[in-house]
Amino acid sequence: MLVWLGVGWGSTHPLGKIATETGHGAFGLIFWQQVVMVAVLGAIALVRRKGMALTAPALRFYVIVAVLGTLIPNGTFYVSVAHLPAGIMSIIIATVPMLAFPMALALGMDRFSALRLAGLALGLLGVALLAAPGAALPDAAMARFLPLALVGPLFYASEATFVAYRGTQGMDALQAMLGASLTGLILCLPVMLVTGQGYSPLPLGRDDAALALSSALHALLYATYVWLAATAGSVFASQSSYLVTGAGMVWAMVLLGERPSPLVWLALAVMLAGVALVQPRERAAKVVEA
User: Fold this and answer.
1) Where does residue 203 rank: exposed (0-12), middle (13-18), buried (19+ CB within 10 A)?
2) Contacts of 244 (CB under 8 A, 6+ apart)
3) Would you give the end-to-end CA distance of the chain in angstroms?
4) CA–CA separation, 145 vs 118, rounded Å?
5) Do residues 86 and 17 make contact, with C-beta atoms less than 8 angstroms apart?
C-alpha cells in the first residue's frame, strides 16, 4: 500500500506539468480537476451509501478546506509547474510537514523539539540548494518561480493544521473530501469565467487525459491513505511522503525526460532527511487519533 501511494501520488506532478502544455489557465484546469474528483468520490460515496454532511459547521469546513487545500495551492501549482521541472516540484512538496510544524507550535498543538527544528532547517537548506544561481535549475530565470511553488505547500500545511485543530465536524475523511471537492468546483466556476480561463476538454488531448488521470488518481489514492491510516496508524501511513518525493523524481525522468543535476539529488537527500526529523513520532500520533 505504501508503494502504491508513493508511486501513484509521485506521478501526479509530471502529469500536472503535461496538463499545462497547451497553456490552459490555472482555474480552468482546477475546475475540470474538481469535476473528475467529484465524479470519482461521488461514485465511492454511492457504493458506501454515505454522502456529504450538510450541517452549517460542515459547510464552513468545506469552504475553508476548498480555499486552503484546492483553489490557492492548486492555482499556484499549475502556474509554477509550467515553468519548473516536475522533479523540482516533487521535492518542494516535501516541505509540507516542515511548514506545518511551526504552525502546530504556535497553536500549542505540538511541543518544541530540537530534532524537529533541525529537520526544518534541513528543509530550508534543501530549498536553498534548489535556488542556488545556476546550480540546480536548468535555467537561472526559473528561480523566480520557486517562491510561488512554495505557496502551495504553505497552504497545504495550513489546511492540515486547520483540520487537526478543528477536526472534520464528525465526518470521515472521504465525506469531507467529497464536500470540499464539490465546494471547490462551485467556488472555482465564477473565478474561471471572470478570468476567461474556461475551456472545453473535448476532443480529449494528451493534456486533458493527463489532468483526468491525475485527478482520478488523487481521489483513489486519498481513499487508500485514509484506509491505511485507520488500519496501520497515521505515522506508518505518513511514510508514504518519502516515496512520493522519490517516485515523483523518477516519474519526471520517465514521462518527461528530465535529468536532474547532482545538486538536485543532493537537495532531495537533504529534504528527505529533514522530513525524517520533522515527522511526528508514534506516541504523538496516538494522541491525535484518540
Assistant:
1) exposed
2) 5, 6, 9, 10, 90, 93, 94
3) 24
4) 26
5) yes
**79-103: pLDDT as tens digits:** 999 999 999 999 998 888 888 888 8
Average pLDDT, the chain: 88
pLDDT, mean of residues 38-46: 95
Show the cell assigned to 181: 471537492
Is the CA virtual torsion 86, 9, 229, 69 positive or negative? Answer: positive
Residues in the chain: 290
Residue 57: which region, alpha, beta or left (left: phi > 0; alpha: psi -120 to 50)?
A: alpha
pTM to 2 decimal places: 0.90
pLDDT score at 225: 80
Determine the average pLDDT of the residues in 53-70.
94
